[in-house]
Amino acid sequence: MQSMSHKKQQLYLVLSGIFIVNALLAEIIGVKIFSVEALMGLPGNLTAGVLIWPVVFVTTDIINEYFGKEGVLRVSYLTVALILFAFVVIYATTRLPPAAFWLDVNRTDDQGHPFNIDFAYQSIFRQGLGIITGSITAFGIGQVLDATVFQALRRATGGRYVWLRATGSTLVSQLVDSFVVLFVAFYLFGNWTLDQVLSVANTNYWYKFAAAILLTPVLYLAHFLIDRYLGDEATQELQQEAAADAAV
User: Fold this and answer.
1) Radius of gyration of the chain (CA)
2) Quick one: CA torsion of 96, 134, 178, 65, rounded to 10 degrees?
3) Where along the chain do its domains lie?
4) pLDDT in tens, the chain (248 residues)
5) Any transmembrane segments, and where (predicted)?
6) Are 46 and 204 in contact, with CB atoms under 8 Å apart?
7) Contact, 153 vs 209, CB < 8 A?
């Protein structure tokens, strides 16, 4: 039988793993902007990274619920460090000289048009170097804001209304995050106009807004499963610790 402390450690490890993997993936795939209209017939454009971002903020809310603001910020700082490490490695690989045979076997695309795979590799991944600055800036601000608003709503409601503090903190933090990341990455360090930044940021935010509302049942399901896994005693202990954190 697992001890209470072991269950807590396992829970934090699993939640942190989900958080880190999805945050890192969102940063890497965020270089692609796709047409919502071409995909679903709805107006607007989205960054590919925003598709999995709801997983990050749902996980943020769950960690905040059971491990408090300190638990959220701990994994957030670790994530920032790992994202930086990942992009340093990616940038270093773009500087490696390509093998001649690799260029030769990939000299044409599927339609037979001339194709430089090393140029494509560099073009895709070096976009991420501009995005990383905006992402880390927005991520840091967003996570601190999310954790702070979550605990403020927890205090204001006396620990009731999980949906309110989870959804409310996400809607506030992502309003800032959605604009900051695109403004820094594509306006300050890129070639977008301010109108393009505002247009994509607006679509990104309303997608996150809808996702936050629609994922509320998932949040309650996660609470149910976690409470069953931990047991009543461990659940109450963790929530009391998180509540004490909120009161500070």
Assistant:
1) 21
2) 90
3) 4-243
4) 557 778 888 999 999 999 999 998 988 887 788 888 888 887 888 888 888 888 988 898 899 888 888 898 999 999 989 988 988 898 899 999 999 999 999 998 888 889 999 998 888 887 656 667 777 788 788 888 888 888 888 888 877 778 888 888 888 888 888 888 788 877 887 778 999 889 888 888 888 888 888 888 988 898 888 888 887 666 666 666 666 655 55
5) 12-34, 46-63, 75-94, 129-150, 162-189, 209-226
6) yes
7) no
Query: What is the H or E stretch that residue 33 is in?
Result: strand 33-35
103 touches 44 (CB < 8 A): no
pTM for the complete prediction? 0.80
Question: Residue 46 has which token pair?
Answer: 């989205």
Position 226, amino acid: I
What one-character-per-residue DSSP string does 65-91 give?
HHHHHHHHHHHHHHHHHHHHHHHHHHH
Which residues have CB under 8 Å from 210's CB, separation 6+? none
Instruction: Please give the helix or strand (H or E) that residue 159 lies within, else none.
Output: none
